[in-house]
Amino acid sequence: MTAVGQALSATELAAVRADFPLLGRTVRDGRELVYLDTAATSQKPQCVLDAVEEYYTRSNAAVHRGAHALAEEATELYEQARAAVAAFVGARPHEVVWVKNATEGINLVAYAASNAALGRGGERARELFAVGPGDEIVVTEAEHHANLVPWQELCARTGATLRWIGLTDDGRLDPATFDVITERTRYVALTHASNVTGAVSPVADVVARAKAAGALVVLDASQSVPHLAVDLPALGVDFAVFSGHKMLGPTGVGVLYGRAELLEAMPPFLTGGSMVEVVTMEATTYAPPPTRFEAGTQMVAETVGLRAAVGYLAELGMDAVAAHEAQLAALLLDGVASVPGVRVLGPTDPADRLAVVAFSVDGVHPHDVGQLLDDAGIAVRVGHHCAQPLHRRLGVHASTRASAGVYTTAEEIERFVDALGGVRSFFGVTHG
Fold first, then answer.
1. Chain centre distance of CA 71
2. What keywords tag this UniProt record (predicted)?
3. What interhelical angle do 102-117 and 149-158 show, nearest 10?
4. pLDDT per residue over 187-216, tens digit each?
5. Virtual torsion, Cα 177, 179, 181, 184, nearest 10 deg
């Protein structure tokens, strides 16, 4: 991954920041907010806030039911949002399933696999998706819990075995361990970009291994789609997930991408209203995808907001977004690494890396680091970031994480680094 395109100019960046009302507020006794927790959730531009308000003010109704004008408007907005988000990642509308978030998307695939193993969906579903004793599922040590625990549970339900790709000491996927993918592998699930180290995975290499073994590939693109130009079909993955709230959109909406022929054969996960064709007291037939996977009343306002978010990013240009954030990544890496007693977790080479930098401060607990930065008006994340195995692999229990977004400025990075430089002396840690 190399940033291409022209980064945002100072004038363009100022205009971007003006679009985000929350960034103008103060915290902690009037200090200007520096928001460096974008990997957890992004802030929202005014166009997203307006779209959600406009929907509830003028068009609120249940979709795909009812014959009145509002129901028609809501359904049209809902499907327009699907088409817009699909185009943003190179997919076709019927390959986009609305879910609550990336976590639900991964669980959907994992539960569909166990349903297929039980014979749900017929022989074709069993052939494509089912796992059982003797089969293996491969993940990586870099995974967020959302792309680890559902696979552990699938193994527990079916008797399959979980294996994983290891990491190098600097937190990148170790190619020497790719041979864990074998003819026994049924699924390979990996993150596109780590929410801890910021490292971008060599997806093409992993996909080539998986395809040679006949395995399906599930990509967690939660940290990549908001920051890079991503074409999911071009990556060759079979499924992918990402969340709206990490890409300037609302909470409560996410995307499961699936190749059309796979979604056609995949049995549903959640069942009930809206996802059916014919229901009798004895049995039910299911609607075609993506409706088959969208049981119950849907999150219409959230999809409308997500459409506004991808429109905003597309107008900026994802190459420009990536170029701007590549500059921020270099500033974050250099800044954190320059502070004595502070260790960057993950690669210090800015190549193939996002503006997400986790670090440990010698002699100071991450929560204390975060508290001191918060007192200075700087919002960062502390803890294990839902990635406990990754932290153990890197030799720490927890860390502090600074993560930038398209609205972050170089001046904010400088203010963060200055504050970080005072942490050890504040706590009286002067050795080392």
1. 31
2. Pyridoxal phosphate, Transferase
3. 10
4. 999 999 999 999 999 999 999 999 999 999
5. -130
Structure tokens at 131: 């796992």
**What's this model's pTM, rounded to 2 decimal places?**
0.96
Residue with tokens 């978010």: 309
φ/ψ bin of 73: left (φ > 0), alpha (ψ from -120 to 50), beta (otherwise): alpha
What are the structure tokens assigned to 396, written together?
């720490």
pLDDT digits 0-9 by tens, 131-184: 999 999 999 999 999 999 999 999 999 999 999 999 999 999 999 999 999 999
Active site residues: 386
